[in-house]
Amino acid sequence: MAEFFQQSFHAHFNFWIYVILMMIGLWALIAKNNLIKKLIGMSIFQTAIILFYVSLGVKAGATIPILDPYGNKEQAAAYAEESDPAKGKNEKKGTEEKGDSSYVGKKSPNPDIMANPLPHVLMLTAIVVGVATLGVALSIAQMIFKEFGSLEEDEILEIVKGGNVDD
Amino acid sequence: MIFAFDIVILVFLVIAAIIALSVKDLLSASMIFGIYGFLICLLWAEMGAVDVAFTEAAVGAGISAVLMIATVFNTKRKSSD
Amino acid sequence: MTDQIPAILVLAPLFGALIIGLAGQKDHRVCFPVTIVSLLVSLFAAFGAVVEVVRSGEIDYFMGGWEEPIGIGIHLHIDSLNAPLLVAIGIVSVLVAIFSIRRIGDKNTEKTPHFYSLYLMLCVGLFGITIAGDAFNLFVLIEVSSLTSYGLIAMGSSRRGTLAAFNYVLMGTVGASFYLLGVGYLYLMTGTLNMQEIHTIFLANPDIASSKAVAISFILILIGIWIKMAFFPLYGWLPNAYSYCPSSSACILAPLMTKISVYVMIRVMLGVFGIEWVFASPGYSNLVVWLAVIAILAGSMLALAQREIKKMLCYLIVAEVGYMVGGAWLADEKLWGLTGSLYHILGDAAMTLCLFLAAGIFAKRFNAIEIEDLEGLFKKAPWTAAGFVVGALAMIGVPPTCGFFSKFYLIRGGIEANHWEFVVALLVSSLVNAVLFFRIFEIAFFGNKPPEGHGHHEEEVAELKEEHHPEIPTWTGTSSLLVASAIVILLGIFNGEIVELIRIGLEDLPQFASRL
Amino acid sequence: MRLSQIFATIAVVITGCILLYGVSDFPGFGDPHSPANAGVPGSESVSQYFITESYGDTKVPNLVTSVLADYRGYDTMFETVVIFAAGMAIFAILGAVGGGGQPREQSEEPFFVNGDHSRIIVGTTCRLLVPVIQLFALYVIGHGHYSPGGGFQGGVILAASFIIIALSSNLNAALRRLSEANYLRIACIGILIYAGFGVLCQVLEGNFLDYGLLQPVLLTDGPEMARSHSMLGVEIGVAFTVTAIMFAIYANLSSRGTLRDGL
Predict the structure, then answer these.
(1) What is the pTM of this model?
(2) C50-75 pLDDT, tens per residue?
(3) What is the CATH number of the domain that holds A152?
(4) Shortest distance, CA C485 to any CA of chain D (angstroms)
């Protein structure tokens, strides 16, 4: 058990937290009585999934996925390594004068020095989808408040069952 | 990525999520949800996902919280749970 | 032009929606022609896709021309499994658009452009889901169709409808999120999002395919899609959402949304995980078939208990979803269950459309919400009644209609797979449907009202009522209903050809070379 | 404890256990050679391709932007459509609440309401802040190729500037700058720009969104620069839609769909 904990918990700390956050959100989504609270739970549920995806793309010791050989020494070194070593120094001189053209003709960097961009792209989409859903859900919640005068689920269900409130 | 930061922010995240769900005042809950958004934005910046962090700062922490507050103002501030 | 078919399918309704957004606010008369024209373009492209698929097998389309290495761009894929479905979506959307003319605008004309814009974007989502070859792209398009359907359901003005829409939003989001999480697990284990590529990796690396994470990703994707299709334990959102919304929305959502989800499930089973992997341990497929059996029986029984037409139809959808899921999971040697399931997607779309259109016309014109309100209506509206009868006969499974043939294939699969409980459930469900619909026929033809005591039931009925408009002409609705019922019969008559097309698609999948 | 809470606890515990059971099988956190980061042995890794080749393909240093707007541009277009659909859905839902045909008040309250001096500080600060925010938003949209940012982020920030106007003064002040008819139109035009770039590529006998073919239209040297410029155009389209719809959602939600006297 202790070994399992050591192995799983230490190497997968982010993944454990994502499960915990997701379960908090899911619990709130099902069990909370107030509709706004349900929506907060829904948002937490969605961010937990985003946390999972972003954790996939993390590489230990890597930088952000933006090419910048001037500012970042590691990236510059990777460029110099990957391109022709003899040519590397000359080109480095050239960068100061020619600006952007310094990228041209160079070979690509070592992929391990940059975080994986694909999960980031996917999660941009997911965040936007999340806010769109939240907006629609909030507008429906406003309609429910207008119709029933309450945002508590049990009160609303009572009104629906009893049929004792007129418009 | 710095592991110590990672753990600290993740723990704060869980705390913020629980508080946002347990506060009875919905306005406070929406604002704590905004704090949750900023924390997770910090986490993503720390993980190297700068574009996601930027979007989350603008969308998750900014617009979502504002929309929620707009709804709370137009409905009811008190909640039973 | 034939190589651009997949793009045209999606883009025509999208541009239609944008034009309505731009011009529809000022002049509402723009909305309807634009809708029809853009949907007809899509329908035409769908027919083109079928012709092309019959001629050359399959169509692959790479967005932005990013073909190599596979998986960097987005891949659209049409083969003979989804080409017939494209035509079905096109036909249903055109017919419902014709039905919906001047209906949604009755009460509040300000909403007309919003309705048609959402309607066209829903069609974009449905077409896109059907042809998607990329797991994440599928998620985005599921969200397009879900968000539009939230809007379409909540735009009605009934109180229960709003509540149902809220539940639908929550359930739909959870379903889509589970799907997204499952895709994330797949990406974690394989490093790609392209469905075919994931399948290739599974075939090449059995250790990945047998890992825990892949098994869990399959479970997550399955749960997500089951929520979307209202499979048995997760069906709670469907009946209220579909019965309290405007009838134009119900007519497009009920025939298509659940069926597309079933298609997505089959696509994921066949194209991503592979049928050998899915049916590797018979225990799980037995479990799903038993769930389907419970779904069929529960759906039929609950339908029997309903007194409102629309709610009854909604519970019948739950039962029909049970047919399709059960058929897909029968795992018989020759895959007749899967064939029947794919054929039933088409047939069920047509017959659900028939029944919902008829129910919508009854509600609009005669204010008939409950079954007993139908008394003597068949004499007043013989054409609508004819359409309703055809749809009902197909539900029961009477020979010339498609319902009979799909049940025939499903039962054949059940017998070959030795799943007798599924066969029994199908027969019981047919019997229940027969009882259900003959009760309606009796009331509607002879006016034998069953003696009933009213409880506090009136309010619920009042919620279901829409604006009552006896004066507006209903020939548009009736004509689309008649076309729909003709399609029900045509699908039955030409079942051999359609099934042959589906079988070709199944045979093309590499893992079946040994089976068929 | 209510029934739903018991049910929720059971469901959550079961789901959580299943998920944690799967976690133990994952590759380690931060492992640069996990399948997601480096691909499965025997097949080419997609994400490594993006890191090593995308600059050569598109000449955009920000890999996220190039993947977002070019390789997966089809997804991004539908992401924008999702936003548009959400906006349409909200108008359709809340439209029933509003008075419909009633004329809307066009009078704008001044920043300093008569006698109400408590708003002076807020009003003045926001008035000074808004142009700066808008300028920053445009920078974010335009500079998305070289730094974090792009159409979505810039669009949201631009919408935030209008929301600040609405919060510090009132909704009418913001609606006068971006009216109901205009925001719908802008939202449609945004997607039209995006899809228009795609269709233009089809006209030039390529696939949808194959920006490289736009070289003769955009007069750039090489298809790579054509891709880079088209991505900028596409991002601007996204920004249009996001700005308009985000502000519209706020305006509708804060005034219950009436678009009169919001918060």
Answers:
(1) 0.92
(2) 998 888 888 888 888 888 788 888 88
(3) 1.10.287.3510
(4) 31
